[in-house]
Write a structure and sequence with these properties.
5 helices; two-stranded antiparallel sheet; 13% strand; alpha+beta
Length: 151
């Protein structure tokens, strides 16, 4: 079975001021879909919507990061995490001023765990209709679309 996860990302690809030339992200309240619109999307797909978190989040939230440490460099483990990318640099976001938003495995750095480029909401697409609904929703709301395919 092909598991294809379509994720609506928060990656901030444009300047801090939203323009019609940029994709809408969760940082822009004026264009981001409402909870009701996401509820409608959820009713049209076969699986509940997912809310990916950076894979190191458990190290900050509960202090229990043994699974993250054990799987951090394991491609199979990373592919099973909705918020993980094959390479950790794709999970971070670097702003034009050089600051970085990320969630590091090393909690001793003294920085908070942040979403980075990890999408905030997604569709766990299992059918062609799920894919169509997710793509149409992203197009209708001018959202940045990330496709994570486990092959």
């Amino acid at each position: 079975m092909l598991l294809l996860t379509l994720l609506l990302t928060i990656a901030l690809a444009c300047t801090s001021v939203f323009s019609k030339n940029c994709r809408c992200t969760s940082a822009y309240v004026d264009c981001w879909p409402s909870d009701a619109e996401f509820h409608t999307l959820a009713s049209r797909v076969s699986q509940p919507l997912i809310h990916p978190a950076p894979p190191a989040t458990p190290c900050y939230a509960s202090g229990n990061c043994s699974d993250a440490i054990a799987g951090w460099y394991n491609g199979i483990w990373r592919s099973d995490q909705p918020g993980a990318a094959e390479h950790t640099n794709w999970e971070t976001y670097t702003f034009s001023n050089g600051t970085i938003q990320a969630c590091y495995l090393n909690t001793t750095l003294g920085v908070p765990c942040q979403q980075g480029s990890v999408p905030v909401i997604g569709v766990d697409a299992r059918t062609p209709r799920d894919i169509q609904e997710a793509v149409n929703f992203a197009a209708k709301h001018n959202l940045r679309l990330v496709i994570k395919n486990t092959g």
